[in-house]
């Protein structure tokens, strides 16, 4: 519901603001609004200590205005009767009521600081990614009768977090025997190549096809 004040250039008018602000910080709601600007513009000077609510409110609005308009003021005097300034101030506030918010928008510095704080929070929550390595392995069968397709299937059947199998090919060794060369990418903190060979590739049941595994190349990514 709209609140009406009149004769705010008089002591009686200021008293109506004083009474309205009992138990309140602002004219409307719990945040500074255009209503506060309207009333502030109509009050000719800071209310005396006889009006503690109005005086405290006046200082609060003045403080916010000073932040929004940081230029140095030298003071101005407006001629005419004391009651006249209220009308243009109210009209101007009405026109800009929907699209002007002197205090709701952050400055560029405040926005940047807020973004940096949010980014810092996300960085602390996000776990740091471990380094990765690219590994080339040679997998050797028992003999020329070993089914190399099943051998490769055994190798690729090993799955664990941080392990990604890549391209592979069969390379002739001699006497009809071929070996499997295969690329893999590992997350260093999650996968140990030595454990991968000893605990998975060359143990049962994979050792039915795999005789041995050698690391040919190891490169940090």
Automatic annotation (TrEMBL):
Pfam families: EF1_GNE (PF00736). GO terms for cellular component: eukaryotic translation elongation factor 1 complex. Keywords: Elongation factor, Protein biosynthesis. Residues 80-134 are annotated as: Disordered. SMART domains: EF1_GNE. Residues 132-221 form the Translation elongation factor EF1B beta/delta subunit guanine nucleotide exchange domain. Residues 93-108 have a biased composition (Acidic residues). One of its GO terms (molecular function) is translation elongation factor activity. Belongs to the EF-1-beta/EF-1-delta family. EF-1 is composed of 4 subunits: alpha, beta (1B-alpha=beta'), delta (1B-beta), and gamma (1B-gamma). This is (rape) hypothetical protein.
